């Protein structure tokens, strides 16, 4: 049995869950998320806990069991607390400027500034010009937006300039050696 899949999901107060067939809807103080579970995996609500079960030990069912439980748990955490990713900008003259909660302007060494618009459900915060906080209720969407921002100017290995996740360690290379 999957150790992740068999763990119950506790539902905090203020979060409503509705299950109709394979459609699961989670509503909380931060918003609402919906997802269609795989056909054979069953999600049951027992009071203030959710249990994810599978019909048998077939390889496909074992794979989907833990994944489904993780996705449902992320939905519950997302609508109650939310998720955020923090990015750092390193480099002389590299900076970010907020243009409202859903748009930022990046200056990262190109001849022009790069505008980034957040999709629905994601907000940007720029506490300092070299820090960006991406937040929202959908964990996958927050991570994808943060990865797209990082992709604009990845940290380069010689001087370490670029956009990186907070706490990310960039492996530095030695430059040219003189003869």
Structure keywords:
179 residues, alpha+beta, 3-stranded antiparallel beta sheet, 2 helices, elongated
Please outline the helices and strands.
Elements lengths: L8 E2 L5 E5 L2 E6 L2 E6 L5 E5 L2 E5 L5 H22 L2 E8 L4 E4 L4 E5 L6 E4 L4 E4 L5 E6 L2 H14 L9 E4 L14
Antiparallel strand pairs: 1-6, 2-3, 3-4, 5-6, 7-12, 7-13, 8-9, 9-10, 11-12
User: Number of DSSP helices?
Assistant: 2
Distance between the terminal alpha carbons, to the nearest Å? 62 Å
SSE pattern: EEEEEEHEEEEEEHE
Number of strands: 13
Low-confidence stretches are none
- Provide the gyration radius in Å: 21 Å
Strand content: 35-45%
Class by alpha and beta content: alpha+beta
Kindly state the mean pLDDT as a whole number?
93
Strand order of the largest sheet: 11-12-7-13
User: What is the overall silhouette?
Assistant: elongated
Helicity range of the residues?
10-25%
Largest sheet: 4 strands, antiparallel
Structure overview:
- With about 180 residues, the chain is α+β, with helices and mostly antiparallel strands.
- It is built from two helices and 13 strands.
- It has helices at about 60-80, 140-150; strands spanning about 10, 15-20, 25-30, 30-35, 40-45, 50-55, 85-90, 95-100, 105, 115, 120-125, 130-135, 160-165.
- It has a four-stranded antiparallel sheet, covered by helices on one side. A three-stranded antiparallel sheet has the order 1-6-5, covered by helices on one side.
- A hairpin with a 5-residue loop joins strand 11 (about 120-125) and strand 12 (about 130-135).
- The longest helix has 22 residues, at about 60-80.
- The N and C termini lie far apart (about 60 Å).
């Amino acid at each position: 049995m999957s150790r992740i899949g068999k763990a119950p999901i506790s539902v905090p107060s203020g979060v409503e869950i509705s299950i109709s067939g394979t459609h699961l809807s989670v509503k909380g103080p931060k918003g609402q998320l919906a997802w269609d579970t795989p056909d054979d995996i069953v999600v049951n609500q027992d009071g203030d806990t959710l249990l994810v079960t599978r019909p048998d030990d077939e390889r496909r069912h074992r794979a989907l069991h833990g994944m489904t439980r993780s996705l449902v748990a992320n939905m519950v955490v997302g609508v109650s607390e939310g998720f955020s990713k923090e990015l750092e900008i390193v480099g002389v003259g590299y900076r970010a400027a907020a243009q409202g909660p859903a748009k930022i302007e990046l200056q990262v060494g190109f001849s022009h500034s790069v505008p980034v618009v957040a999709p629905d459900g994601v907000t940007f915060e720029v506490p300092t010009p070299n820090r960006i906080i991406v937040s929202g209720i959908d964990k996958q969407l927050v991570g994808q937006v943060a990865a797209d921002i990082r992709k604009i100017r990845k940290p380069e290995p010689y001087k370490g300039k670029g956009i990186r996740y907070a706490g990310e360690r960039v492996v530095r290379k030695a430059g040219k050696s003189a003869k």
